[in-house]
Amino acid sequence: MNRRLPLAGFASVLVFLFLYAPLAVVIVYSFNAARYGVEWRGFTVDWYVRLLDNQQATAAAVNTLQLACTSTFFATLLGTALAYGMSRYNFPGKALFQHVLHVPVFIPDIVMAVALLLFFAVVRKFLAGFELGMTTMTLAHITLQIPFIAIVVRARMEDCDPQLEEAAADLGAGPWLTFRHVTFPLMMPGIVAGGLLAFTLSLDDFVVSFFTSGPASTTLPILIFSSVKRGLTPDIHALASLIVLVSALTVVTVAWLRGRTEVKT
Amino acid sequence: MAESTGATTRQRRRRLRRTVHFGEPLPPGAHTFRASWLCGPSVLWMTLFLLLPLGFVIAMSFAQRGDAGEIEWRFTWENYARLLGHGALGFDPVQPVILLRSLVVGLITAVFCLMLGLPVAFFIAGLPRRWKGAALTLVVIPFWTNLLIRTYGWQLLLAPEGVVAKLFTAAGLLRAGEALYPGWPAVMLAMVCDYLPFMVLPLYASVEKLDWSLTEAAADLGAGPLRNFWHAVLPQIRPGIIAGAILVFLPATGQFIIPDLLGGAKVALLGSAVQQQFGASRDWPLGSAIAVTALGVMFLGAWLHTRVTRGHKEVGLP
Fold first, then answer.
1. CB-nearest partner of A162 from B16, B45, B291
2. Is A64 exposed, middle or buried (0-12, 13-18, 19+ CB in 10 A)?
3. In angstroms, what separates the C-alpha of B158 from chain A's closest C-alpha?
4. Cα distance between residue A95 and residue A147, in whole Å
């Protein structure tokens, strides 16, 4: 059996085509001049321009970005501190908590969504004026994001050599200086990668958002879902293509960051 | 050999990190104190917004539903009995069928992902070093893009006048004007496409470590390609196959967007059933019982996954 399998190469190309077909077709149709149906009526960028006039879409975009930025900010803070603490210190129940961190990664979205819906419903009973909306969505998204950031940052920390810190201490740097100039810069690629992944997670989340959103907090995925249900206008194709582009760029950036800063052992 | 020295370096570093802090030895008592303000907030957060809500779901699964959809907190096993087919008028197959269907769909998805994932894993493992990272990134990009958009893409592809339908009609497999969705083929296509990255990553991790001298030995001893694959390759990549199958199977059973958009009403899975009960049917206790079942399936799978991948470098998400 040969290491380089020509057949595997051919099959892989087909699989990659299969993998990208649904994304490609949406992007292609975003340039289709036809207003209705799937017939090709010529190339246009009109739908991208029209998108700016679509008030629903712009409002949803603002909501989405606000949600993603706020939740990513807090989740990055919490998740980074968590990863740092867990890779450095022992505390009672740590092994158990490590398993808890993997729950949001494995759990079906829908279970997480209804659990939070139920939780917020209970809170609302005791707290008058607590309504479903941006706040509940932000809380939900932070919960989804913390484990991803913690796992990525922790993996990065495990790859770094603690002897570098010792060296800094030997050269007379105190704990703060060492952290500031050695530890933190080493952690930084992990923090950025984790933060970016968490950002796309929030940007693309539909299920959890759908269940924890209120009437005034429509995000882009929710808008797309309701448009798909009602029948899509072509400017939504343009919107979807833009979202795909942002996610893809983020993932490529993360991969690039990781490849560039990989620690050689 | 290289693998084992790598592991010991890792262990030594970890030990060092735990006992020495910025060059100073760290007394064991300081651990809990420092961890409490670094990890404390997140531990509290996950307890409040993950464990407590899941606890509510479990509690709710033992509650009763009043006539108007309100919840009565009286302990009952009824919701689970209904999942097993216990209805007011004798055997009611609705819920058991959904449960069985989810397991079967998850299994079929895993098998198809394995068949498509194997060549990709071998192909990427055979690439020159600098292309591997790029190829793996290419595999995970669809996973991180919006599932709704990908599912909608399948709607476009399989629509009555779409590309695939035209090809099928031309080949005589489909009558003109008929669509390929909603229905099972559309759901399975989208499912396999969606979960393929989960299969490729662990498979690739296994193939990458493959000891090729065994296959050469097998070939020298006269084994044909098939026997060679079965006896020399397959046992080596089994951990990757099992890990990948679990990673595909688990989320696939809980899926609800794909059945909703591509399957129509007949293709409800566990995820769709939860959504149905919490949404239109307003039977939160029953919905909670289904959610707890999905959770149970997940824990079983996660436990299996850690057992299988124990001793292997973590094959997780990108």
1. B16
2. buried
3. 10
4. 14
Q: Which two tokens stand for residue B162?
A: 């779409």
**A221 and B148 in contact by Cβ < 8 A?**
yes
How many domains does chain B divide into? 1
Q: Which own/partner contact pairs does B61-64 have at CB distance under 8 Å and 24+ positions apart?
A: B61/B285, B61/B288, B61/B289, B61/B291, B61/B292, B62/B285, B63/B284, B63/B285, B63/B288, B64/B285
Average pLDDT score, chain A: 86
**Cα B93 to Cα B98: distance, rounded to the nearest angstrom:** 9
**Triad B222, B226, B230: Cα angle to 5°:** 100
Identify the bridge partners of residue B65 per DSSP, sorted by sequence position: B71
Q: Is residue B135 part of a domain?
A: yes
Please check whether residue A188 touches B, CB under 8 A.
no
In contact, B83 and B293? CB cutoff 8 Å = yes
Strands B86-87 and B90-91: antiparallel
Chain A interface includes B155 (CB < 8 A): yes
CA-based nearest residue to A18, from B108, B113, B256, B178:
B113
Residue B131 CA: distances (Å) to CA of A16, B127, B275: 15, 6, 42
In tens digits, chain B (318 residues) has pLDDT values of 344 455 567 777 777 666 666 656 667 677 778 788 888 899 999 999 999 999 999 999 998 887 776 777 778 888 888 888 877 777 778 888 888 888 999 999 999 999 999 999 999 988 888 888 888 899 989 988 888 999 999 988 888 777 777 777 777 776 666 667 778 888 999 999 999 999 998 899 888 888 888 888 888 887 778 888 888 888 888 888 988 898 898 888 888 889 888 887 677 888 888 888 888 888 889 899 999 998 888 888 888 877 777 655 544 443
Q: B25 and chain A: CB distance < 8 Å anywhere?
A: no
* Chain B touched by A38 (CB under 8 Å): yes
Place of tokens 């071998």: B122
A18–chain B Cβ distance below 8 A for any pair: yes
B76 in a domain, yes or no?
no
CATH number where B204 lies: 1.10.3720.10
Query: DSSP letters along A31-87, please?
Result: TB--SSSS----B--HHHHHHTT-HHHHHHHHHHHHHHHHHHHHHHHHHHHHHHHHH
**Exposure class string for A189-207: b at 16+ Cβ within 10 A, else e:** bbbbbbbbbbbbbbbbbbb
Window 108-127 of B, Cβ < 8 Å to A: 116-117, 119-120, 122-124, 126
pLDDT at B127: 86
| Domain assignment of residue B149, yes or no | yes
Q: What is the ipTM of this complex?
A: 0.86
- Among all chains, which residue has been given the structure tokens 């006896």? B231
Give the distance from residue A167's alpha carbon to the nearest chain B alpha carbon, in angstroms: 8
CA distance B217 to B214: 5
Over the stretch A182-241, which tens digit does the pLDDT of each residue have?
888 888 988 998 999 899 999 989 999 999 988 888 899 999 888 888 877 788 888 899
On whether residue B263 sits in a domain, the answer given is yes
